[in-house]
Amino acid sequence: MFTKKKILAFLAACAVFLVIDLWMFSVLRGSYQKTVLQDKKELIVALARSAPAEAAGMDPWLTEVQKAYPGLRLLHIQGIPGIAQVQAASLDSELKSLWSARQGAVSFQTGIEAASYLEVFVAPEAVRLGQGKFLLVFAPVLNKEGDTAVGIVVAAVDESVLTSFIHLTYSLSMIAFLVFALGFGIPTFSRDPLTGYAILVLFAIVLTFVAYPLFEALRLTFVHEGRFSFAIWKEILTNKQYLSALAGSVKLGTLTATLSTVVGFLFAFFVARTSLGGKKLVTALATLPVISPPFSLTLSIILLFGNNGLITKRLLGLEHFSIYGLGGLGLVQTLSMFPIAFLTMAGVLEAIDSTLEDASLDLNASRWQTFTRVTLPLAAPGILSSWLLVFTNSLADFANPLLLSGSFRVLSVESYIEVTGMNRLGNGAALSILLLLPTLTAFFVQRAWVAKKSFVVVTGKPSGRFSDLASKPMRLFLLAFVVLASVFIVSLYGTIVAGCFVKNWGIDYTFTTANIVEALQRGKAAMISTVTLAGIATPIAGFLAMIGAVLLVRKRFPGKRLLEALMMTPFAVPGTLIGISYILAFNKPPLLLVGTGAILVICYVIRELPVGLEGGVATLRQIDPSIEEAAADLGADQATVFRTVILPLIRPAFISSMSYTFVRSMTAVSAIIFLISARWYHITIQIYNFSENIRFGLASVLATALIIIVLAVFGLMRVLVKQSEHLEKTVTVQ
Amino acid sequence: MEKRSVPVQLEKVTKIFRDPKTKSDVYAVRDAQLEIESGELVTLLGPSGCGKTTMLRMIGGFELPTRGRIRIGGEDVTYLPPNARATATVFQSYGLFPHLDVFDNVAYGLRVRRVPKAEMATRVMEALGLVGLAELARRAPGRLSGGQQQRVALARCLVVRPKVLLLDEPLSNLDALLREQMRVEIRRIQKALGITAIYVTHDRVEAMSLSDRVVVMKAGVVRQVGPPSVIYERPDCKFVAGFVGKVAFFPVAVLAEQVQGAVACSLAGRRVLAGSMAPGVAVGAKAFLMARPESLRLGDPGDGACDGTVATNVYLGSSVECFVATEYGEILVQIDDPSESRLRPEGSKVSITFDETRVRLLPEGEE
Ligand SMILES: Nc1ncnc2c1ncn2[C@@H]1O[C@H](COP(=O)(O)OP(=O)(O)OP(=O)(O)O)[C@@H](O)[C@H]1O
Ligand SMILES: [Mg+2]
């Protein structure tokens, strides 16, 4: 509601605030400058007092001062120019050449004159010396009696001491103004200020914790020695080591995606298109790897097939077999990612109208012909999209390659090594950005091609009836495959549990409970900090996701698309990139967060927000908006409507978003490995450390504990969501 | 319940939607000027998409007018959010809270107003009694019939004692019989409470039988406002005449003569009289003569204003609808109290006579 009166009042208030704001800023700047310069001046005057009167003592004195104040750049001038013979001495060649070049300049003249009157002088303009800008301070060197100047000390004081502080206060005062303008403007002009504030807060959050760090990471890759340059990218794209990591990632991604799609399709066909029993059990088993903590499958693969593996060493006695590398990685990734393909394709296969297959059979096509000519083409877009989904997941995967890659290189681990091992942040950032490219490509291919080609016919008919396309041997094969794969998965988890109770896996298989005691004792602190931080992040992420969903579905406001894109971005960004960008952005003022628990909480919230948001949006779309309008109409304000109507109605989405956040935060690795500190450690990193130190027993205990927690949380979620299922039914009755 | 009602005024209210695809403006409501008196039941009537819902939603505060002001009880409420207005809306889809039972649905408005528990309970039961649902207070709304849900929605509005009741096609989800019952009930309750009510419908029978005044809209524009009888008998344009009932139009030239309040005009050379004249009809110019089926009679060829042949007789019991083919198209003549003598067999030549007090001249031009 922009009425003239309101706009005038608003502008007047803004102007008053701006004047006060700028006045305070200039006062702060002035007084800071004064005190800092005063400090420096006093120091330099004191130094000038201590300077020797004779030229002979000069060099030792300069060396001594240099030692005491390493940052200070000094030039000593013996004698006053224009009065006596002059001799300049300095350890700093740049300063010396500046002196010989600019001796006659006005500021130098003034400085010399001031010194000859025994005054201290600061040149008003900064000069360039090498990289930075410096302020020149002239101070007199006195004779023994202290009444005449016999020389001058010229000191170059780094200007950035002043400017960085001034920049900081300046940006803070601008932020204060912005906050004032928005905080005052929203209730003035909006008839729904709460929504305005919610939008503002969400924007502030995503700009600060999504856009800003990613921008910082990108910026760093274009900076070399303080300047814009392509040096880092040149190195990344030419260095053999990096290129082999890129090739490795793509190879591994292709292998995993292909294997997962094949396995996933067989599972999906079994569940969606055959009349064989045990589907519920198979579905539950197949989804287990999705929610199980990182390192757990890798761990059991190492226990079974590693250098001291139960199968490879003990049973088969293989000597030169190595699970580390592409093969082992492909196996573990397939095990942990085929469920994604399975779930995607089961949905697609279930949606295919089976009357099309019936029609084909009716036209005397054989079952195989029907499968290859009807079913497969109809499912093709779904198959492709599940391939892409697994591919991007494989690229972003960090935990499995970290333990199992051996000498095989992949991008995610490479960027981690660059950052933590080599301290080359720029290279690490560039590598993880490289990781984003295939992901983005896959995303756009998905959107452009799959979306267009999607001719799955969704009839909404109960898909209870379908003709069995699989012949008897085929069905036997499917059954055998699914049973064997399921048994394998179960035995992997069994291995982890067994690992808890074995004294020294691979060498001494005697039963013991010592591992449990030791692991729980050593992992206690990490466990507590992990649970605490995940627990803090959970409700925050849940509420933000639901509020975001309400804004996106129900409200119209400028910048909605941008807000949505920014909130969804972390979904596509690999964890390593988020981790690296966070240490880049939040290791300096004004947001010095690295090392605190807060940065971990923020990281959890930001990374899990997209999934909760999607869930909330999907649920909210099914709810008749007139329900909320009725509540507002009956006198409820926005907050009351949210609390008493929206939240109860989207409760299933709210609960699952929270449990998802909790579980994912408990099992995070890739981003948080950069962000943890001694005080705020993470249980998964503890598992990693135990495995690296060949303490598989301890690692098994912690992994088992995590699995139990995760299963418990999901169980709890199912109970809670079930309770509100009657509610969902009545929503759709409307 | 005490009587309290206020007038509602719309001043030059315009609502423009922006079509996101074509980037063009859609005038959902254009310069609507409306004075609704207190205690009145006004229906907004018009074809689908003419802006009735949009108008109602602006009064309720769910949409903001692009231009213009809205006053409720003299107070400018244009920018007030719904929760700050003394209106209550019965939504087409009812909008019942699925997670609350009937009692809590009705109590919702009182809860957010922090009405004391005891008073709340009596008021809720009173409102439920008013709509005849007292014994279903603890049902979940999902387990009610459509008509019952509709009553809950009404009770939920009434319990907060709104000054203006807004209803958006509240009966459109009900079957014909129930619709008639509920219509009577809504009118009874509205009258008993003396509440100002605005009722959206596209059903002309509903509008005619229910309202004190009818607002006929077309393409966002208010075409005519008046009591049902005026809208029916003395419409101002062809659109209103056609929308509220069956009607025939004859192109005539208006003659300068006035005969005892009636206007003389010529229909293809024959002189006919029209009892009234809508604004915009000019003497000497062309116009349309509108005639309702019940204001036409059959006579022998050459007697009346226009000749034709009986095409079909449709027997309806209390009346017969006789379709006569003429040079102006097929004209419907209603024959009340039909007996053999009054009926003309199909195929016989007849002429049509006007009941001149009931036919009316409408301006030519756009519908
Ligand atoms: N949110 C919106 N965005 C864009 N156009 C809209 C929106 N709401 C309504 N319109 C348009 O405004 C016009 C009036 O719509 P409105 O819903 O008021 O019609 P109505 O008279 O209630 O119709 P019906 O009898 O079908 O309910 C229509 O052309 C509609 O397409
Ligand atoms: Mg409508």
Structural notes for this entry:
The radius of gyration of chain A is 34 Å and the shape is globular. Chain A has helices at residues 4-50, 58-68, 93-102, 106-116, 160-189, 193-220, 231-238, 240-273, 279-291, 296-305, 310-315, 326-351, 354-362, 367-396, 399-404, 411-421, 425-453, 472-500, 514-554, 560-572, 575-585, 597-621, 625-633, 638-649, 651-666, 683-692, 696-723, 725-733, and strands spanning 73-78, 87-89, 121-122, 127-129, 132-142, 149-158, 223-224, 227-228, 502-504, 508-511, 587-588, 591-592. In chain A, the strands form 4 sheets. In chain A, strands 1, 2, 3, 4, 5 and 6 form a 6-stranded antiparallel β-sheet that branches. Chain A starts with a helix and ends with a helix. The longest helix of chain A has 47 residues, at 4-50. Chain A is an alpha+beta fold. Chain A has a domain at 4-163: Beta-Lactamase, CATH 3.30.450. Chain B is α+β, with helices and mostly antiparallel strands and 367 residues long. Chain B has 2 domains: 8-237, Rossmann fold; 246-363, OB fold (Dihydrolipoamide Acetyltransferase, E2P) (Beta Barrel), CATH 2.40.50.140. A 6-stranded mixed β-sheet of chain B has the order 6-7-8-3-9-10, sandwiched between helices. A 6-stranded mixed β-sheet of chain B has the order 13-12-11-15-21-14. In chain B, helix 2 crosses helix 3 and helix 3 crosses helix 4 (146-158). The site of adenosine-5'-triphosphate has 12 residues of chain B, from strand 2 and helix 1. Adenosine-5'-triphosphate is lined by residues 17, 26, 28, 46, 48-54, 202 of chain B.
